[in-house]
């Protein structure tokens, strides 16, 4: 009887997970979505605990306690700038869980395992282990405890692919002859190693894509677990997770005009560094905070373009003050958000929302690009490549073809920048040398404070 | 009658299409919270982890693996849902009193 009830609990949980993601489509319903997800998860856990004769009760209880004790501070103490790292760690946790469950099942059932279950287990463990180490590497790069630039060596792709092929070969051997348990540690070890090697050649600029991709892998690994356990709820949740990560990484790739293959095998940072030297000094116009304040004051519409540099300078809250003053003076202030602004999909939106900037003032690239032509001032803070007109005009530019914010079409452009150093991708930006561009040199937070001081309250 | 494998494949296929359709409609505004909530949902691995811990019986190896898997899944569930809600609380429209996320 209870055994049947639990199937219905899983069914309801699956429906709640779907609703949960559906309600994420708008800020108005999103928190309801979180609630639906929580109820679904509770149903699934309680159902699972009720239906089985619990032998190792204390183990599970302690694990629940420990997981909560780690999870709560992780959610509340983490600064919003660090959410990408937290997300990567979270992929690592999910992937590790899937891989370990697969491993435990493999050793438990070895003599009786065959065919299809073994295929599912191998996929689950392969994806699980490689996503585990890959996500840890990604988190390390985002936290900058590991070098963010791509690490490359000779024949890198060949070595990586060979290792992957060997891991896959051992996997196939284990599927055919599951009793070859001595091969298993090699399989797990190679999968773990491949995860590391997969991520080290990837540069900081490609992190948003990589995080989304790892999200997808973690989901697919959970999905494979569902196949192995013949549990449809796991299949559904894993498939939802997998497709979500897949869509996000496609969006990120499109926003950078790169293909998956480029991201995984490209090592972006390298290509341009060769091109640097031999650049002549060019003139730029710079302006003081007073001049900048005067221009903003007389503007009737301002579009602010922000990048991750804004968060690095901790300037979000000062920017909110500027936004408030200008809005009160009747200036129409909008924020233009490029899809890859920040370190993960949608990161910039959360950073600005944290600074209390109303979300109906945040505009996506496609919605705002036509407005630049009519706007008086475009203010660029901590962003560079996403506003580089070279992507549109210069066929030789490494970012040629990448969709950009059309900042250069505004009447006046102001760029707050520490110095003339090139951005993440290491590419010079034509925008800085235009006649209508004023460079505001300095730390974003200090410079915005200065502007705010100059503006009449 | 279709086998378990075939049924699972059907479920997988349908869930993938549903997922693709739903996620496509999510506003880019909320892509970060979307990722954290899908992480929380991927904590559903806890079901498999519980089953493995229980069926491990006296095997210490199995129990330890299960224990770690339950712990990491619970970390995902707890931190995923809480941080999603924390971020969503920050999204406000103009003229909106503090502390409410409703439009």
Describe the structure.
The complex is a heterodimer of chains A (457) and B (103). Chain A is an alpha/beta fold. Chain A has helices at residues 2-22, 27-51, 57-77, 83-109, 115-143, 156-176, 184-199, 207-229, 232-256, 260-265, 268-273, 289-298, 308-312, 316-328, 347-354, 365-368, 390-393, 444-454; strands at residues 301-306, 332-337, 362-364, 377-381, 412-417, 437-441. Helices cover 60% and strands 7% of the residues of chain A. In chain A, helix 17 links the parallel strand 4 (377-381) and strand 5 (412-417). Mean pLDDT of chain A is 87; it is low at 267-278. The N and C termini of chain B lie far apart (50 Å). In chain B, helix 2 packs antiparallel against helix 4 (60-90) and helix 3 runs antiparallel to helix 4 (60-90). Residues 96-103 of chain B have low confidence and may be disordered.
Summarize the model shown:
With 457 residues, chain A is an alpha/beta fold. Chain A has helices spanning 2-22, 27-51, 57-77, 83-109, 115-143, 156-176, 184-199, 207-229, 232-256, 260-265, 268-273, 289-298, 308-312, 316-328, 347-354, 365-368, 390-393, 444-454, and strands at residues 301-306, 332-337, 362-364, 377-381, 412-417, 437-441.
Question: Could you give a short account of the major beta sheet of chain A?
Answer: 6 strands, parallel
Q: Which range does the strand content of chain A fall in?
A: 5-15%
What's the total number of strands of chain B?
0
Low-confidence parts of chain B lasting 5 or more residues at pLDDT below 50? Answer: 96-103
Separate helix tally of chain A: 18
Beta content of chain B: under 5%
């Amino acid at each position: 009887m209870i055994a049947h009830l639990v199937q219905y609990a899983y069914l309801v949980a699956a429906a709640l997970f779907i609703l949960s993601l559906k309600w994420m489509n708008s800020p108005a319903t999103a928190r309801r979505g979180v609630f639906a997800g929580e109820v679904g998860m509770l149903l699934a856990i309680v159902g699972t605990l009720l239906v089985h004769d619990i032998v190792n009760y204390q183990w599970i209880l302690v694990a629940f306690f420990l997981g909560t004790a780690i999870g709560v501070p992780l959610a509340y103490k983490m600064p919003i700038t660090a959410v990408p790292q937290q997300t990567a760690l979270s992929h690592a946790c999910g992937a590790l869980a899937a891989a370990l469950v697969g491993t435990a099942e493999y050793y438990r059932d070895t003599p009786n395992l065959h065919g299809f279950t073994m295929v599912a287990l191998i996929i689950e463990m392969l994806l699980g282990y490689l996503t585990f180490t890959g996500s840890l590497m990604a988190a390390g790069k985002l936290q900058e405890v590991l070098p963010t630039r791509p690490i490359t060596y000779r024949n890198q792709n060949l070595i990586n692919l060979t290792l992957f092929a060997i891991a896959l070969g051992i996997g196939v051997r284990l599927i055919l002859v599951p009793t070859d348990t001595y091969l298993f540690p090699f399989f797990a070890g190679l999968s773990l190693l491949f995860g590391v090697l997969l991520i080290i050649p990837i540069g900081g600029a490609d992190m948003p894509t990589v995080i989304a991709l790892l999200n997808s892998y973690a989901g697919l690994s959970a999905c494979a677990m569902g196949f192995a356990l013949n549990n449809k709820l796991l299949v559904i949740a894993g498939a939802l997770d997998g497709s979500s990560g897949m869509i996000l990484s496609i969006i990120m790739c499109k926003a950078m005009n790169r293909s998956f293959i480029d991201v995984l095998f490209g090592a972006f940072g390298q290509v341009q560094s060769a091109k640097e030297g031999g650049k002549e000094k060019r003139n730029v116009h710079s302006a003081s905070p007073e001049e900048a304040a005067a221009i903003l004051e007389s503007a009737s519409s301002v579009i602010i373009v922000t990048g991750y540099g804004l968060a690095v300078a901790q300037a979000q809250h000062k920017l909110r003050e500027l936004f408030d003053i200008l809005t009160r003076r009747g200036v129409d202030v909008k924020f233009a958000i490029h899809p890859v602004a920040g370190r993960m999909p949608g990161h910039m939106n959360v950073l600005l929302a944290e600074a209390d900037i109303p979300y109906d003032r945040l505009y996506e690239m496609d919605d705002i690009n036509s407005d630049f032509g009519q706007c008086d001032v475009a203010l660029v803070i901590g962003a560079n490549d996403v506003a580089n007109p070279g992507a549109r005009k210069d066929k030789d530019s490494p970012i040629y073809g990448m969709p950009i914010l059309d900042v250069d079409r505004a009447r006046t452009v102001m760029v707050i920048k520490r110095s003339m150093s090139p951005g993440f991708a290491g590419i010079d930006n034509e925008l800085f040398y235009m006649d209508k561009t004023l460079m505001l040199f300095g730390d974003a937070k200090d410079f915005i404070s200065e502007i705010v001081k100059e503006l009449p309250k | 009658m279709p086998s378990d494998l075939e049924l699972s494949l059907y479920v997988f296929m349908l869930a993938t299409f549903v997922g693709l359709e739903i996620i496509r409609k999510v506003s880019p505004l909320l892509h970060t919270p979307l990722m954290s909530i899908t992480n929380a949902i991927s904590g559903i691995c806890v079901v498999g982890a519980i089953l493995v811990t229980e069926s491990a019986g006296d095997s210490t190896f199995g129990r330890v693996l299960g224990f770690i898997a339950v712990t990491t899944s619970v970390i995902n569930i707890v931190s995923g849902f809480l941080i999603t809600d924390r971020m969503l609380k920050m999204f406000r429209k103009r003229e909106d009193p503090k502390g409410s996320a409703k439009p």
